[in-house]
Every structure is written in structure tokens, then in C-alpha cells.
Specification:
alpha+beta, six-stranded parallel β-sheet, single chain
Length: 1073
Amino acid sequence: MLCNANTVLFGPDVIASRSCQAIFLRLHDSPENLQLCSYFKILKLAVFSRTYNVCEVYPGPNLNVVVGANGTGKSSIVCAICLGLAGKPSFLGRADKISLFVKQGCMKGMVEIELSKSPDNIIITREIHVVSNASVWFINRKPATLKAVEEQIAALNIQVDNLCQFLPQDKVGEFTKLTKTELLEATEKSIGSPEMYQFHCELKNFREKERELEVNVEKTTSLEKMKQRVERYKQDVERYHECKRHVYLIEMLERKRPWVEYENVREQHEEVKQSRNQVKKELKRLKEMQAPWTKKIQEAEENLKSLDMKIRDNTEAIRNISQKCKEKQDALEMKDKQIEEINQAFRMKKDEETNRQKKIHQTQKIIEEWKNELDTMAVCENLQPQIDAVNVELKKLQEERANTDNDVSDLKAEKNNQEQERKRIIDRLGQLNNIMHMKEENLKVKFRDTHSALMWLRKNKDKFKKKACEPMMLEINVKDNRHAKYIENHISSNDMRAFVFESQEDMETFLVEMRDHQKLRVNAVCAPAESCAEKLPSRPIEELHQYGFYSYLRELFDAPHPVTSYLCSQYRVHDVPVGTEKTRDMIERVIQETNLRQMYTAEERYVIKVSCYTKQNITSNTCLKEAQFLSSSVDTDERGQLENQQQAIDNLLKSLDARLASLFGKQKHLEHKDNKLRQEKKELLERGNRRRQLESKIAVKYDSLRQLEQDAIDLEKEFNLANMKIKEINKQKAEIMTELTHLMKNIPLNVVKVALALQMTRMTSEKNRLQADYKAGNGQLRDAQQRFQELANRKQLLYEKCMKLMKQARQVCRLGPDQGFPEDLKLYAFQTLPNTLEEIDAFLNEEKTRASCFTGLNASVVEEYNKQTQEIQQLTEYLEKKKTELNNYKQNISEVKEKWLRLVKVMIEQINGKFSKFFSSMQCVGEVDLHVEKEEEYEKYGIRIRVKFHNSTELHELTPYHHSGGEKTVSTMLYLMALQELNRCPFRVVDEINQGMDPMNERRVFEMVVETACKKSTSQYFFITPKLLKNLTYNDKMTMLFVYNGPFMLETYRWNMKYIKRRQRRRLASMKE
């Protein structure tokens, strides 16, 4: 069957020039395909990807099957199609920069695509410059802009960003992740008429406008509320004007009131002024009547002053004599006290002598008693041997106690040292545990499901037969934090958070519990049955020191045995060296001489692969990312050593406590024995010292007795001395008494004082009589003066009050200092309003009460009323306009919706018919329908794909979670095939979509692709695959493009298909012969 298909073989061509090397792939052209709008005719690639130097591809107009082993460059052709047609690198999912698609070592690459179009073909060329990461565009080999290229491609309905038209290898999984809405839009763009997607966009825009208009129309409710509010404002405005009238009347009353008050006070002032003048005349008359009485009273006061001076002189003389008499009496009392003191001193001498005699008697008695005791005491026995024996025992006992005390001190010091060491170990363990806690918190923040599984594992470790390790990011402890980035860049993120099990059965039990029961997304791996943890590297690290390598990855961290075994098996950490900047500087030599496949320098990772075709080394290097999980590590060896040291210290402390308790008991026993021996020694010493003590005490008492006898007092001598002192004092007393008698003779001065006092009394009564008569006439004068002063004060107060009221009244009426009273106020305020304060106050209170009923009103009510009235008018006009627009939009939506739904339903019915047919041919069921959540929400319309692969199940919507990878791949492929005959796009690309299928489904799908893509009315189709099954069905319209690669391939310019076919015919002929 293969021989019936058009076959093209191509491969890389090695060219010496590095500036511009090209790969050209010419597409087969056929006259029968000129009816299509456009399709690939020629594809040329220059230094594109890492596979080709020069390549030229000639695809056929129908189905093109591109076959080649992995790594030969099939996907490079797909990348060239996408990038050559103004596609972005993100559409391919391989790299984010356009320069990364140019072959390594070259400065520029080129893609040229020729598209068939009537009347003239279009040639689009893209040059990619590595240094600037920029592209230069050409149309028909003339410079052009990217916008011009995009316009040309859009005019041909080429959509490399539409997964329904262009499905690269790295985007196959994303097709099943398309939402129903995204799938509908992609399908519309791919096979729908141009107006279909335009109608859909218009519907979404119309619906958005309709929502905005509906929101505006809903303002009708607010309009009614505004009208109701204005009605309320209208009543408030009327009440406001009525309130203003009351306020004006209150203002007039308040203006008149001070004038009325002023007039009342002014009248009172005139009355008080007249009364004061009358009292002033009466006061003058009374003062003239009081003049004679005043003269007589002054003469009486002068006589009283003369008598008062005489009495004062006499009183002073009497006071001096009295003072001298008092001094003499005090001197007599002092002499009596001196006599008493002399008698008291003599009595004290007498008592002292009596006490001395008693002490002598008592001392003699004590001496006699001690002499008797000394005479009766036996001769002192010899106690020295017994005392010596006790001293020997005490010495031995003290030595033993000293030894025990030293032992206790040593043990206490050792215990204190051990406790300090234990505290240091506990603090260090706390620091290590805190680091583990930080790592767990980091895990909880970034991988919550993994953290939940970790908590479950710690509580249920008894459910596993063998050891179950926690996630690697917790188990791995980097010895030096600077090396953490090497470990993290070497181990994938999925494995970093994976649990490690020694038993496959344990791992399956764990995953069933986590994924099926608890619905947690966690990873788990199983360590190899045969341990790889102790595997030796391919060469000792010492041999690599010359290249700057200092360690293998395995030596940079600690981990449990299963984790290390898994990493050695899966990541070969025992054989990946880590180097320095020195390694980076000599990297080419390292690659050539060491044959290492992976290595690390200070900041980069190098991976070296050998091409299966050229046998040349392919080197890739990536910059190392900063560590996220292992930057904080715990040294497990240190932690284990600390825990062992803590246990040993705890045991030692218990032993020390037991030994100390024993020594404390021994100390207590020795102390008791020491006290007993000392008491015994004390008693022996007291028995030997008693006689010496008695003799010493008797001698002391004799000395005391002699001292007492020497201190005797002569009482007779003391008595005579005291009598002589008393006689001398009595003589002094007699002299003082004589002086006192002489002073007492001056008594007549008191008689003179009495006579003067009687005369003073007579003059005082005369004065009082005159003053009484004066007061009788002066009472009326004082009353008159008081009345005059009161009236004068009142007049002044009333005057000041008048002036104050005048000022207030003018201020209330807003009158200037020289301004006269206005006529309008005089006519209204003083004639129509009340004229008394009582009437004005009553009227004023009444008006204020009425005005107070109008609460909550101010000038803003009138302003708001006018403003609201204007807004109502504007809003009414606005709503009328929006209602008209809404009706027009609804009419437009209805027309566009009818047209769009008719086109969409026809399209989906066609897709569903073909999709169901394809599934039926595979003994499965598949349906495609239009999914509608709400009829008016056009942005949520979508295409729903439902499939059933087994008779025992029901139709389920195609999702990336419910179906397997193979089922998703088959469904995707059949949906794309259903679009093939309906397609209005010029070509379709599907890259390695058959990889996840089982052989039976792969065969069925391939036959359907051949049948569909080889029809006359279908567009050009590219089917990329690394392999084909045996005995497949082929078609004459197919073009088989076999991609070969290797060191023995012919250069492109040396291919001669006629020569090859001629040689093939000769070989077949020779074989027949």
C-alpha cells in the first residue's frame, strides 16, 4: 500500500557557513487543488531548530503524513509552519523567545512558505536574528511589516492560534481543557462562515449594550421615587415659606422689644432724678441744725485725752515696782531650791554607803561558800588519756567528713556541668525543630494537599508494613545551604513533594486513601527493591578535582535510606558531580575528556546527549534557579548525635543523683557521730577545769572586796559640809527679804490711780450724754444721706441701663451712631405691634412656638426642590431616549440571533452527524450539541462533546479529569476529523496525536483520517507521527514524508528522485529474472 502513495524522503544537509544555513521542504503541487483558497506549496527552513541546517519540503495538497523517529525533526516542520505564518512562540508551548528556535551556534535563521492563491501565489519569508531576538518579514521577497503579513494570513483564514486548525505536539493536552465557550469560538473561526463568528461577536456586544440599557431603563423606579420625593419637598417648601413669615414677625418683635424696654427705663430714670433732688434739699437743712452739738462733743474728747495721759503715767510707775517685787520673790524661791538640792545630795551619799556595806557582806558570804566547796572537792583525777582518745576519734572522723564533702562537691560540679550541657543540647534541638517547622509551613502554603496527607501519614504509620517516608523536601537535609540549589534543580518539583515507600503495596494503599477517599492530589514513589543507596560512582571524585569538581550530589545531603536509594536509581545523584567557576571556564575540555552526561558548575547545569544519528554530543545548559524548599536544612547526623547525648546525660544525671543521695546520708551519720564525741570531750574538760575555775573565781571576788573597802564614804564630814552651805544660803535670803520690804512701802501710787479713774468716768458719762443728744438729731441726717446715696446710685444705674438699652436697640435695628430711626419701622413696629413688654413677650412666645413647629427646614429645601425638579425633567428625557435605543437593540439582537442560531445549529448538526458516525464505526457513542445556560447570555453558549467508550457506562461530557489520556486523544482526533470536510481553512496540522492510543483505536483513527482527508473537497492536512502500524490502509492522494537523520545522509542538492526510481525499477527487474 505504501508504494501507491506519493513519497518524499528528506534529511539534514551540513553546510560550512554559520551565517545562514537553510533547510528547504518543497510541497507537492497538483492542478486539481487550485480551486482551494490557499494551501502550502513550498516550505523552506534555514538553520531552524537543532535538527536541520537546510531543509526544503514539498507537501501534497491532501493528506500529508510526516513520519520519522523521535528527534529527527518532525516537530521542527510544525514549528516552522506556525512561526512562518506570524505565529507566536507561546502557540507552540516550547520556548518563550523566537531566537531559541534557531540552531545553536548560528546567528540567523530563516523560514519561507509559499501559499497557493489565485491568481498569484504568496511567498512569506521570516528571518530570525538571534542577537536582537527580532524578526524581519518579506512578502514575495519584498520587505514588509508584521501587520501586513498578519493581514494577508487573516485574509486566507489561516489561524495558527486556533487548536481546531493547528494542534502542535505540546498543545494536544490543552485541547481537552478548552471550555465549551472556547471550543465554540474556535470551531466558528475554523469551519464557520465569516459572518457566523461576526454574528456571535455582535450578539455578545449587543447583549452587553442591552444590559447597560436595561440598567438605565431600571432608573424608571428611581424616577418615580424622585417624583414622590419632590412632592414631599413641595409640602416642605410651603411650610418653609410659612415659617419664614413667622420668623419675620419674630424679628420685628425682637426689634421693637428693646425700644419699649428702653422707654420704660428712661421713665424710671426721670422719676428717680426728681426724688433725688428733693432729698438733697432736706439733707442741707439737717446739716445746719447739727453744728452746735458737734463743738461740745469735741471739747469733752480733749478733756478725756488729758486724763488718759495721767492715768497711763501712774500705771507705768506701779508696773515697775511690781516687776521688782516679782524678781525678789523669784530669788527667794531659787534659794529654797538650792537648800533642797544640798539635802538631796547628802541623802544619796548616805544610801550609797548603805549599799556598799551590803555588797561587802554578800561578797564575803560567796567567798566562804566557794572555800567550803574547794575544801570538800577531791584531788582531780587524771582525765588526759580519755581526752586524747576522744581527740584521735575526732581527727579520724574529720578526715572522713572532709573526704565525703570533697566527693559531694565533685559530684555537684559534675552534675552542674552535665545540666548545662543538657540545656545547650535542648536549645540546639529546639533550633533544629524550628527549622523543620518552617519547612512544614512552607509545604503547607505551597502544597496544601501534600501537607494534609503528611498529617494523615504521621497518625497512621501503623497501617504500613514497611517504612513510609515523608515528602522528600522534608526528608532531605542539605549539609551546606549553598548546595541546596543543586539538589532542587536536579530533582523535579513533583518528586520533591512526593512520599517515598519501600513497598509497592504500601504506596498503593496510601494513594487509594489519599486520591480516592480524601480527594487529595498527592505524589508518591516507591524505592527500588534492590537498594541503590550505596552505589559507587563511575569514577572517584579525586580524578575530577583537576576539572574543578569537588563532590557528587549524593555527598551534599543526608536523607533516609529509601529516599537516597530512589534518588540514586532515578536521578543518579551518586554519579553527578558538582563543580566551580573553574569547571565553567574549561567546560569544553570537561565535556570532551570526562564523557560525563550531567554536571553542575557554580551557577549552571549541563546535560550532554549523544545523537542517535550523528553520534555527536548535544549539549544544553540552563541557569540554576534559587532554592525554595531546601534552603533551610536540618543536619540529621547532628540531630541524632544530640539526641543520643541528651539520653546519655539523662542517664548520667540519674546516676549522680543516686550517688549524691548516698553521700548526703553518710554526711548526716558522720555529723551525728562528731557531735556525740565533742559532747563527750566537753564533759571531760569540764571535770578537769572545775577546781581551777573555783580558785580563779575566789581570787576575783577578793579583789572586788578590797575595792569595796577602799570606796568607803565619811558621812559626818559630808553632813557638816552640807550645813555650812545651807547657812550661807539663809544669809542671802535675809538680804533679799529686806529689799522686798522696802519696795512694798510705795502703795500710795494706787490711791492716785483710783482718783484719776473716777474723774475719767465722770468725763466719759458727760461725753456719752452729748453724743446721745447728737445722735438723736443725726439719725434723720443719716437717713437722708442714705436715701440720697441710694437714689444717686439708682439714677446712675438707670442711666447706664438706658444707654446700654439704647445701644442694643440700635444694634438690633442695624442703625449707625448718627443714623435716624427709619420711617417704615416706626410706622409698623411702634403702631401695629403691642406697646407693652408683657404683650410683646406673649406675642413673641406665641410666634416662636409656631415657628418651632417647622423643624428640619432650611433654605436647602427650596434649592433641593428646584434641583430635583430639573433632574426629573432631564431624567425623563434621558429614559425616553434609552427606551428607544433598547427597543432598537432588542430588534437587532432578535434579527442577528435568528441568523446566528440558524448557522450554528446547522454547523453543529453537521459536526454531530460526522462525529457520531466516526464513533459508531468504533462501536462507541459520541454526540456534539449546543450548550445553552441562559438564552440571553450569548457569551456562555458553547459546544458540548459527550462520549461513551463502554457499553456499561453512560454518555459523559469530555473532560480532562473523567476520561483517560487515550480516550481524550481519540475524542479530540475524531472531532477534528468531523471538522475536516466542513473546514474552510486552507490546511490543518495535527502533531503526534496518536501517541496515547491503543493499536486498535490508532488503526481505526488512521483509516478515518485517510478516508476524510483524501476526499476531493477537503483542505490540506498534515498528520505528524513518529511511527505507523503495519498493514495500514493508504490512498493515492496521500503524500508520505519520511524524515531521516544521521551522519550518512545525502546533501539536499544531491537528491535525484528520477535516478532513485530508475535504480529501483532495475533492481525489481533483476529480481524477476
